[in-house]
Amino acid sequence: MNAELDTFDLIAMGLKIAVVVVMLLQVVPIMVWVERRGSALLQNRLGPNRIGPLGLFQSLVDAVKMMTKEDRATGHVNPFYYRLAPLVSLLPAFLTFAAIPFASHITMGDKTVQFQIADLNVGLLYILSVTSLSVYGIIMGSWASNNKYSMLGGLRSTAQMISYELSMGLAIIGIVMIFGSIQMGDIATAQGATLIQLGPIAIPKWGVFLQPLGFIIFLICTYAETNRLPFDLPEGESEIVAGYHLEYYSMMFGMFMMAEYINMTVASAFVTTLYFGGWQLLPGMTFLLTHSGLEGMNFEWARVALEAISFVLKVAFFMWLFVWVRWTIPRFRYDQVMHLGWKVLLPLSLLNILITGFLIYLKVL
Predict the structure, then answer these.
(1) For residues 93-103, b (16+ Cβ closer than 10 Å) or e, as one string?
(2) Cβ atoms < 10 Å from Cβ of 8
(3) What is this structure's pTM?
(4) What share of the chain in percent tops pLDDT 90?
(5) What does the alpha-carbon distance between residue 124 and residue 275 come to, in Å, rounded to a whole number?
(6) Among 52, 73, 131, 200, who pairs with 57 as Cys (CB 3.0-4.6 Å)?
(7) Average pLDDT over every residue of 50-62
């Protein structure tokens, strides 16, 4: 029986890993196309429209170009760390998603399948710890490039990461105080309750309604952590000529770009799980499910499918928000970035903890 259970668990784990890895790999070309078409839409121009309908195959052609370009380190770099750096940036992006649930669970006989690669009891800490490792790839690449502009980009990334990780961690404490858990599955499940019932309209107990200030702080910090505009100071083309990846080209540059888009996906999934109910069904889906006429396992699989669709739609919204913000807000000056992190977000995150504790003491939350 134990052997059968182990085999079942291994097969389920392998399938979940394969699905997540394939989906994350597909995100990169899709988001490159969305970024290009989205920027064109916001700037009232066409964007890619030559290769395939609406330029859909442009990302595929770019991927082929990157993989077939000559990949040779120049003479002035440290070759070992130069080649290792893109991999160090890319791997944490994949590892982080392991603790994020994309649906609840389903019971088949005496076996329960969690739609989460690793249901860790310290999932929140795991995600924060692994995401902080990606900066080592940037630092390693900038130092190994032996270029002053690359090094300046790496130093900027380090300072920015330290400045905003502190506020991000403090913003999450409010969620932990309310839900009493650092397990991602528990946090997503707890948001299925009803916060306020206004006649036929039920406002769910999502984190964004319980922690509006914490959500704003956390969202701003995710932009800084992923080095996206208006916080792309580690690149800063107008100041340091592309920053930490200045000496990179072909697929090594492609790996840095993949890491950025996968980190965007993980950040969007993280925001969704903590503040927007995770896999909790979107309005109208519960009615659709209960009136579908399905029963038994068919009903359960339909429920899981709708939960996964809800999760993906929420993540897709925040992915689009990344693009929208990038092509709307100009880059900050570096002193403005530091001022915002240390003198605005840090005090606000401490104030958010104080307010949350006070409301919990009054039993409002």
Answers:
(1) bbbbbbbbbbb
(2) 14
(3) 0.91
(4) 39
(5) 13
(6) 52
(7) 88
Q: Is 48 left (phi over 0), alpha (psi -120 to 50) or beta?
A: beta
Residue whose pair of structure tokens reads 């956390």 in the numeric block: 218
Q: What's the full length of the chain, in residues? A: 365
**Residue 263 is part of which domain span?**
2-361
Q: Count up the domains in the chain and report the number.
A: 1
Q: In the numeric block, which tokens belong to residue 345?
A: 């977000």
Range 234-240 contact pairs with CB under 8 angstroms and sequence separation of 24 or more? 234/138, 234/153, 234/154, 234/156, 234/157, 234/160, 235/153, 236/153, 236/156, 236/331, 238/331, 240/149, 240/152, 240/153, 240/156
Q: For residues 92 and 114, give the distance between their C-alpha atoms in angstroms, rounded to a whole number.
A: 22
> Is 78 in a helix, a strand, or coil?
coil
| Residue type, position 28, single letter | V
Residue range 163-221, pLDDT digits in tens: 899 999 999 999 999 999 999 999 999 998 888 888 778 888 999 999 999 999 999 99
What would the pLDDT profile of 3-36 be if each residue is shown by its tens digit? Answer: 445 787 888 888 989 999 999 988 999 999 999 9
Output the six-digit token pair for 95.
Answer: 């590892």
Between strands 201-204 and 105-108, the pairing is: unpaired
Q: In terms of pLDDT, which residue wins out, 126 or 69?
A: 126
Angle, CA 142 vertex, CA 138 and CA 143 arms, to 5°? 120
Q: What would the two tokens of residue 65 be?
A: 């170009």
Task: List Cβ neighbours of 278 (8 Å cut-off, separation of 6 or more).
Answer: 101, 184, 187, 188, 191, 272, 311
